[in-house]
Amino acid sequence: MRPLALLALALLAIPASLAAQRSVAGTFMASRIDREPLPVTDRVIDADSTEYLIEFDRLILSLRDDRRFRASIRYRRTLFSSDPRGRARGTPLQSMTVTGTYAIDGDSIRFTPDETGETRGLRMQVATIRSAREISLPFHYRNGTHARDRTLVMQKRDDIL
Fold first, then answer.
1. Where are the domains of the chain?
2. Helix ranges, the chain (H)
3. 7-156: CATH number
4. Phi and psi angles of residue 143, each rounded to the nearest 5 degrees, phi first
5. What single-letter DSSP state applies at residue 105?
6. Better-scored residue on pLDDT, 28 or 141
């Protein structure tokens, strides 16, 4: 085989994962958790039997071409009250930001967070690229005695960040 043909074959083989990486790079916003549109409220109980309402308000995931990511989540965490008037009080939004690297293997994305005090013990899971405009991202969270495994459906948004 001619050297130019070998070079052409090598160049065709290398960009497959790079092309997938470039096609997925961009900003994604969670549209649903499981089948529920955001915001989603979940009731959890901590180790002291205190009940809380966790409201997931917004999650934005930015995937850059240099294989860096930034995930930003906004949520509310309030004490649960059996009195509906107590649940109506305004609770300030809290936020958490996680940065790190990501790697693409086929239709999977593996996230590795930067080590910080806020991310200690954080268990990142492997996301699935459903299309160039949609990612399915499983996540696990624990509050006291209750653990949850949920899935975020992330839609590519060209109008933010």
1. 7-156
2. 3-13, 15-24, 84-87
3. 2.40.128.280
4. -135, 100
5. E
6. 28
